[in-house]
Amino acid sequence: MIDRDGLGSFLRLRRESLQPEDVGLMRGQRRRTSGLRREEVAGLCHMSTDYYARLERGTGPHPSEQMIAAIAQGLHLTLGERDHLFRLAGHAPPPRGSASEFVSPGLMRILDRLTDTPAEIITEVGDTLRQTPLGLAVLGDASLRTGPGRSIGYRWFTDPSVREAYPPEEREQLSRVYASGLRELIALRGSGSRAAELAALLQDDADFRRVWDAQDVGVLPPEFKRFLHPTVGRLDLNCQTLLDPDQSHRLLVYTAVPGSDSHEKLQLLTVIGTQTISN
């Protein structure tokens, strides 16, 4: 059963404890609010200000699990705080670990500060959970992907346009990378895992079966990430990875050598914004 008063009080205290810079927002010169404004939190949680304000006042509707998950992420709650929020709202907390899509506050704080850098947070099977604006411009809008297609490994074998975003000479290597990654995850997580589900769905694809039957493991991707962007052309980027071992999430940060052609193209993308790309 929902605890409306407890929920409202907890939301208010968490909101007031956050500063704009904690969540990647700019602090105005005439700011008087000690913490975040309600409209700022509503924007972070992708809901209306009125809806969020009613939850704080204890007069709103019974929020769904999806709404509570969005609020927990928007407020940068810890896992313990997230679970408490779910219970106050009358829901069982979601699972933790590799099956969770809840991004830790630490990774979120780092991502929030990468405003001029392509970056994304992904799950172990390659579902993109969060992107920076420039990450979206380089890699495509992950929010448009649904179902198995959220996984880059699944899209690689089922959507020809995804391969077209990578140089032809690297496509065979990347096929082996994705197949071997799924094989290793199945051994780690078991036959009921998301990796096993994706591998089963891909058995109808002849190219996947070819590299799958080779039983490769430990195949590493190329040192550089090379993308064929539909607007600026080829991008040669370094990819640095930060791992959250508790959630099995990875923060991928893409950088170009200063002064290089790819560096200039990234600067151009910060100006022209996002494009509709499929990968």
From TrEMBL:
Superkingdom in the source lineage: Bacteria
Pfam families recorded: HTH_31, MLTR_LBD
InterPro entries in UniProt: Cro/C1-type_HTH (IPR001387), Lambda_DNA-bd_dom_sf (IPR010982), MLTR_LBD (IPR041413)
Domain HTH cro/C1-type: 35-82
SMART domains membership: HTH_XRE
Annotated GO MF terms: DNA binding
Name of the molecule in the record: Transcriptional regulator
Organism this protein belongs to: Arthrobacter agilis
